[in-house]
Amino acid sequence: MPAFSASAPGKIILFGEHAVVYDQPAIAVPVTGIAATAYAAADVLAPTGQVIIQAPDINLDSPVNELPMGDPIRVTVENLQAFFQLDHIPACTIRVSSTIPIAAGLGSGAAISIAIMRALSKAIGLEIQDTDVSALAYEVEKIYHGTPSGIDNTVITYEKPVYYERNQPLKTLRIKKPFKMIIADTGIRSLTSTTVGDVRKGREQEQDRYEVVFSAIGSIVRSARQAIEKGHPDRLGPLMLENHELLDELNVTCPELDNLVQAAMDSGALGAKLSGGGRGGNMIALVDDESEQAVSDALVEAGATNLIQSQISG
Ligand code: PMV
């Protein structure tokens, strides 16, 4: 078995997080400056079927079948084996590294699982289609937060901007005029499962109010799609702010995210909002060439622990 590698990018949600779980549309784009990479190499001396996973960044070096049941990496490998209907996977070592911050709303979990599936499939000489990669990654996403919308596995598998609606055929998004986002990290790690669970509980208690917020977010997403496809990225700024306000109504922002949004706006950003599950992780700010430097400086000054500049095109 020869050695093979595969990479998968990070992602950001531009509009529509949380409401997308309740069948509203959302827009997400790949972030190619950050990626998870998996490298699968034959291990001729190892016992039959022994698959070792090594992830030096998180001090992991273990046979996959000794990881806890339900561990996302173990599930990724076992599901791939079942998908190919193999008795065992040829003995190999899979090495994983990633520059995508974990639990920060940038799709790290889906990217790792997709990179592993692709590297391992190539290494064992079996083809897997994008639809199957995405479907298997969706199963792993369920481990992270029970009821995922499927947006992460979709955008990361296809590596294209998507206008995503649950249970609908894939719609990629044509970005007529590229635009720039600064992705700024609060440094707070927040589990998507917690915020998704809290929104679910909130909706159970106040269904009417939550439905109004979800559909208002859906309208914003539809307007954003038009602006993106017609080449008016400047119109996205106010839509981002409205989306952030509505996420606040769902109680998924936090003072640190609000502070970064404010800092971005005060320093000339065209719009800003949290991105992903919320209560930590990253926010995004829409900038142009003139405002980019000032906004970056202001975000660092306001406490951002990491910045990623991303050109949104496709
Ligand atoms: O935290 P992230 O980037 O994985 O985003 C979660 C997005 C949600 O809409 C909150 C959940 C989902 O499954 O779509």
Rg estimate, integer Å: 20 Å
Task: Give the uncertain stretches in residue-range form.
Answer: none
Structural class: alpha+beta
The SSE string, one letter per element, is EEEEHEHHHEEHHHHEEHE
Strand content: 15-25%
- Regarding quaternary structure, what we see is single chain
Q: How many DSSP E strands?
A: 10
Helix content: 25-40%
What small molecules are bound in this structure?
A: (3R)-3-hydroxy-3-methyl-5-(phosphonooxy)pentanoic acid
How is the main sheet built? 6 strands, mixed
What coarse outline follows from CA principal-axis ratios? globular
Overall mean confidence score, pLDDT: 95
First CA to last CA: what distance? 35 Å
Counted by DSSP, the helix tally is 9
What can you see in these coordinates?
By secondary structure, the chain is α+β, with helices and mostly antiparallel strands. The protein is built from nine helices and ten strands. The chain has helices at 72-83, 108-123, 130-145, 151-158, 192-205, 207-229, 236-249, 255-266, 292-301, and strands at residues 4-15, 26-42, 51-55, 60-63, 92-98, 162-164, 179-185, 271-275, 282-287, 306-312. The strands form two sheets. Strands 1, 2, 3, 4, 5 and 6 form a six-stranded mixed sheet that branches. The radius of gyration is 20 Å and the shape is globular. The two termini are 35 Å apart. It binds (3R)-3-hydroxy-3-methyl-5-(phosphonooxy)pentanoic acid. Residues 13, 17-18, 20-21, 105, 107, 148-149, 151-152, 192, 196, 276-277 line the site of (3R)-3-hydroxy-3-methyl-5-(phosphonooxy)pentanoic acid.
